[in-house]
Every structure is written in C-alpha cells, then in structure tokens.
C-alpha cells in the first residue's frame, strides 16, 4: 500500500494505492484518524481540541498525542517536519510542541517552537498544541507571542509557569 498526494483543483488530496498502480482516493481517512490527510480546512478541523477530546472520552474511544522538542539545527527541523506525515498517519489526536527557550521559541527561525507548530498545523494538517513557558517573561512579551501564534493559525496554547 502506497500513500500518494496530488493536487486537484488547487487542493491537495491523498490517495492510497497498491503496488500495481491502482488507487483508492478516499476522504474517509481524515475521519478515521484524528488529523486531516490534507492541510485544507474541513468541518472536523474547525472543532475545538477540547471538544474533540470530550467526544473521544464520551464515546470511550482511546486516543494519544505525540510531543516534540524542537531541534537545534535547521537540518534537524527539516528532518522532523519530513517525518510529521508518517508519524501523523498513526492517528494522534494532536501533537505537542515544547517551548524551547534556548532556540528562540517565538522567532521566525525554522527551529523555533512557533515555526515547528505552525508547520505542523498549516502544512502537515496535524492538530497542534504549542507550549508557552511564561516564567521570567513580561506581559508584553507574552502578549506578543500570543498575537503571533494567533496570526500563524495556532489555536491551542498550553501556558506553563515554569
């Protein structure tokens, strides 16, 4: 079985095929897992994460998340992002991105926590929770980080004291 991604009418769609080349284009895969198979907005992605968690708990379904610590190098970031789709195919409900103080977490660097989380959401279709360490930060800096996260499309923030 091979996963293939192709652009159709300006939207990215995934299809599954066997080694013979036959394919089975299926939008159902995004409903079976907890993430979208394509980085386009659908009704499931508009649900709040807490609603998704509540639905899973109420229905008795099991779920899990994955947590990533942003790499220190650009090549490490490329390596991590290139594996998001494969790791996401396991169906995590969301991914956590740790706040990496040594890596300038709120910057536009490809190794920053914000950029890793933004890439997970906007390009890989993974629901993301950005950790935000508030210890030793002033109100203006935190407000700036939150505004930037909103601008990047990050809806889920875990504010940590330390």
TrEMBL record:
Q: Which stretches are tagged as biased composition: Low complexity?
A: 14-28
In which family does this protein belong, per the annotation? Belongs to the methylenetetrahydrofolate reductase family.
Q: What is this protein called?
A: Methylenetetrahydrofolate reductase (NAD(P)H)
Cross-referenced PANTHER family? METHYLENETETRAHYDROFOLATE REDUCTASE (PTHR45754), METHYLENETETRAHYDROFOLATE REDUCTASE (NADPH) (PTHR45754:SF3)
Q: Region labeled Disordered — which residues? A: 1-48
Please give the organism: Ilyodon furcidens (goldbreast splitfin)
The UniProt keywords, alphabetically, are: FAD, Flavoprotein, Oxidoreductase
Where would one find coiled-coil regions in this protein?
Answer: none
Pathway participation: One-carbon metabolism; tetrahydrofolate interconversion
Taxonomy, top ranks, is: Eukaryota, Metazoa, Chordata, Craniata, Vertebrata
């Amino acid at each position: 079985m091979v996963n293939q991604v192709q652009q159709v009418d300006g939207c990215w769609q995934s299809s599954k095929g066997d080694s013979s080349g036959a394919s089975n284009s299926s939008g159902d895969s995004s409903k079976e897992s907890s993430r979208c198979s394509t980085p386009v907005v659908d009704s499931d992605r508009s649900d709040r994460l807490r609603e998704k968690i509540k639905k899973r708990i109420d229905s008795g379904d099991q779920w899990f998340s994955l947590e990533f610590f942003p790499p220190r190098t650009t090549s490490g970031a490329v390596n991590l992002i290139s594996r998001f789709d494969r790791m996401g195919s396991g169906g995590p409900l969301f991914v956590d991105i740790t706040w990496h103080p040594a890596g300038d977490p709120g910057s536009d660097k490809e190794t920053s926590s914000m950029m890793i989380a933004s890439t997970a959401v906007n390009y890989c279709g993974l629901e993301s929770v950005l950790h935000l360490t508030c210890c030793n930060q002033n109100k203006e800096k935190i407000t700036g980080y939150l505004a930037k996260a909103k601008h990047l499309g990050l809806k889920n923030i875990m504010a940590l004291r330390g």
